[in-house]
Amino acid sequence: MNPKLLINGELVAGAGQRDIINPATEKVITASPVADGRQLETAVAAARAAQPSWALLGMAERGELLQRFAAAVAEQGDEIARLLTLEVGRPIALSHFEVQLVLKGCAFYSAQRLDPEVLVDDDNTTVAVHRVPLGVVAAILPWNAPLYLAINKLAPALMAGNTLILKPAPTTPLATLKLGEIASGIFPPGVINILADDNDLGPALVRHPDIDKIAFTGSSATGKKILAAAAPDLKRVTLELSGNDAAIVLGDVNVEAIAPALVFGAFFNSGQICAVIKRLYVHESVHDGLCAAMAAALAQAVSGDGLDPDTHYGPIQNSEQYEKVKDFLEEARVTGRILCGGKVPDRPGYFVEPTLVTGLTDGHRLVDEEPFGPILPIIRFRDIDDAVNRANRSPYGLGASVWSSDRALAERIGQRLEAGTVWINQHCAIDPGIPFPTSKQSGIGVEAGRAGLLEYTNLKVFNINKHG
Ligand code: NAD
């Protein structure tokens, strides 16, 4: 393993290095290169210089290169999945799933086209709306799903004719740098640049006058700073931020049937996904039965090293987040009732058992805030209007779900939920081809899907006098 930055088509060492820790063992996987301000300047200048000819290439040619890139990623899929598991800590099957999402994202976006839309074409005038690239995009990523969140930016940004600087999270650069190694043999120099950092280059990218758009995924707190820092230049931004997704379970469900799907929807990636279930509102008539069924489903769960194929749940990705999750756990122990899990295993690695907590309600920190770890509060409700109001009380609005055997009723309830995505009888079903909109303080703009491509364009109107 010899990770390198990608700057202006060249794989280069960093100005510095940072040890990357395997969260399942707390041992160093390898040292990652980290870029300094000078390397950032070189990367931005290269992206700027490459952009006009990249945009002139046309979408069909750009799509072909994206497909070649995907084919090369597929060839090295096993190695990329292994790197993801080593640095993120998650089960290897989930890492393979993430690689598949990368391939799906490339396939979806490489087939997209942005043909001009003719609004008027009469004897005197032709008016057509074109979609043009923004210029240079800086994509700034978190640590929980490095490649899925990278491809949802890289593929549409490039297809729309932009060039890119990609900055992975400081604790999870390895799989992303591997993509850079693959990209270096396929894309023209400067089109993709990948800069790993020591958690210090984000603000410099956001402020940089030669960057036209910031595509950010991460916490709402950082998103607000980015929005403020982008304001002086009126840079375009897409912000995919924190969530506190509510799921509402009606009294007509079959608890045994839905318990595994709810466990998956809450504990996927050990709860470290923006849009997993973080508050579970359950009708009082099925509350106890559902709690028992979910606890039974979790009793089979195996936590461990993600490279072991028997592992269901990996550790928390980094020590800082581990401390935050343990804090939430301690509070749950004091203010609620731990139904299952609740322990911090005495072993190396940032492990916290998947935990169900009852006896809490809105106003408790575990219900109001996002733990971003494997702890789920289950809240009893009697009246559906009350449950909807409580679900909407959050400042966040990423996803929500309704669970019922009456689909029409579930959809009517879903219409009242303030969220970018409402799932019915499932949660966190994501796909690069399906838009993932934000609402409230969960962000600005849309990632994924056709709408995600349009976010990397400006409208440009051609209004032509035919008699001029
Ligand atoms: P974070 O906001 O701390 O960091 C994310 C990235 O921003 C990192 O690359 C970091 O180096 C960079 N950064 C930090 N400060 C910056 C600044 N001032 N300017 C520019 N860049 C800066 O987030 P995290 O802890 O890595 O990720 C966890 C959070 O991400 C959770 O809140 C989660 O809900 C959210 N998230 C959201 C989505 C979504 O699609 N909405 C997806 C995944 C994670």
Q: Structural class of the secondary elements?
A: alpha/beta
Bound molecules: nicotinamide-adenine-dinucleotide
Q: Major sheet: order of its strands?
A: 14-15-16-13-12-17-18
Q: Which percent bin holds the helix content?
A: 25-40%
Number of helical elements: 15
Mean pLDDT over the residues: 97
Give the end-to-end Cα distance, rounded to a whole number of Å: 63 Å
- Residue windows where pLDDT falls under 50 for at least 5 positions: none
Strand content: 15-25%
Can you tell me about this structure?
The protein is of the alpha/beta class. The protein has helices at residues 37-56, 59-75, 77-88, 92-110, 146-159, 174-184, 202-207, 220-230, 255-267, 284-299, 319-335, 365-368, 384-392, 407-416, 449-454; strands at residues 5-7, 10-12, 16-22, 27-34, 117-121, 125-133, 136-140, 163-167, 192-194, 213-217, 236-240, 245-249, 277-283, 337-340, 355-358, 375-381, 399-403, 421-424, 436-437, 443-444, 446-447, 457-465. A 7-stranded mixed sheet has the order 14-15-16-13-12-17-18, with helices on both faces. A hairpin with a 2-residue loop joins strand 1 and strand 2 (10-12). It is globular and about 75 Å long. The structure holds nicotinamide-adenine-dinucleotide. Nicotinamide-adenine-dinucleotide binds at residues 140-144, 149, 167, 169-170, 199, 202-203, 206, 217-219, 222, 225-226, 240-243, 274, 370, 372, 398, 443.
